[in-house]
Amino acid sequence: MKILFLDQTGQIGGAELSLLDLLKPFRADCLVALFKDGPFKDLLEQHQVSVQILSNRSLSVSKDSSFLQGLSSSFQLLPLIAQTAQLSRRFDLIYANTQKALVIGAMASYLSRRPLIYHLRDIISPDHFSATNRSLIINLANRFASLVIANSQASQAAFVAAGGHQEITKVVYNGFQPELYQYSSANRSELRQQLGLDTQFVVGHFSRISPWKGQHVLIEALQYCSEDVTAILVGDALFGEDQYVNQLHQRINELKLGNRVQTLGFRSDVAELMSASDLIAHTSTSPEPFGRIIVEAMLCRRPVIAAAAGGVVEIVKHGKTGWLSPPEDSRKLAELIMSCRNHPEQSARIANQAQVEVSQRFHIDTIRQQVRYLLQQVLHCKESGQHIPYRLAE
Ligand code: UDP
Ligand code: GLC
């Protein structure tokens, strides 16, 4: 099966890491076309995946862009659409991994008559998108996509609530390779020593730095925790959120938490750092479409407290495989952190239970099989001349 994958960014976010995991079985015959250069290109090449950069300019359609801006940018998109359509003629399918990839992919699919798959990794709601962009995504997906793969039931439900056709959607969760998340206690102690945190209770926060990822919620929570509770913030501002970074540092200073918060920037040793933490906090203030870091923390057998919204509630069973905290409630988060710190045996039991569950439920092999099956269905429908959108066989 020859697939042209499209992604709008050269940065390494969850959508890109998920795509890398997913496409490996197809890599002999696939190409990833990126609309921007960046470290994701190098990562794909390290994994022997063919990559092509289609444009070095950033697309000016932003999540909250207005109609007029959108219209003017659509003219800038024409060369990119033509390039993508031309390229797609060498492939059986076009696979759009992000929202802007959908815009380009839809037009290319129309021109080259190649079926379009849209991997929906966003919650299409006012929290995340302007009215113009919600309507653009929904209309393009309804009109041009043969299949919309939603990364959670929450993403699927928001798509349908915004007017998306339910019958073209399927939920496929993100997949993981459990053996990549196993670290010995010797590794753990060494890393804690390097970070100067061997006697602290370490709360790890792993996410790109962005207001909706809610790093501030954890910082606020620290003031209500005992002095030994320390946070490591792992991740970078990938999409120009410098103002938020400054606000975070200002708040850390105001609360005199400089000696209890370490910012480590983007790291490629997330699993090691998670294993070195005592607890992982997820604090998104808007509904998280899926939340890879939650499953990763569970695979590392670390207790997790996560913000109860979006796809997160499909992953975490409160009190059984982790804890759910109301988004933006730093006092409740602090209470849960202290409870986890004060009851290490209970926390370890829950973390063990979570690891067993997610190792099976989100195993990459199962997820790859599900996607392959769906893509075969799409090709089969095309070959047999069935109209699309169509109802996917169960
Ligand atoms: N991540 C990483 N290095 C960092 C911070 C995050 O490799 O410094 C990875 C993290 O392990 C996870 C992904 O980035 O796999 C983030 O995915 P998630 O679904 O949690 O959030 P997104 O950023 O996609 O909204
Ligand atoms: C997006 C979402 C995140 C999800 C990832 C992979 O980046 O924000 O929640 O885990 O895609 O599907």
UniProtKB/TrEMBL annotation:
Q: Which Gene3D superfamilies match?
A: Glycogen Phosphorylase B (3.40.50.2000)
Example GO molecular function: glycosyltransferase activity
Which intervals hold domain Glycosyl transferase family? 188-355
Report the residue ranges that make up the Glycosyltransferase subfamily 4-like N-terminal domain in this protein.
Answer: 12-179
Q: How is this protein named in the record?
A: Glycosyltransferase family 4 protein
* Species for this entry: Pegethrix bostrychoides GSE-TBD4-15B
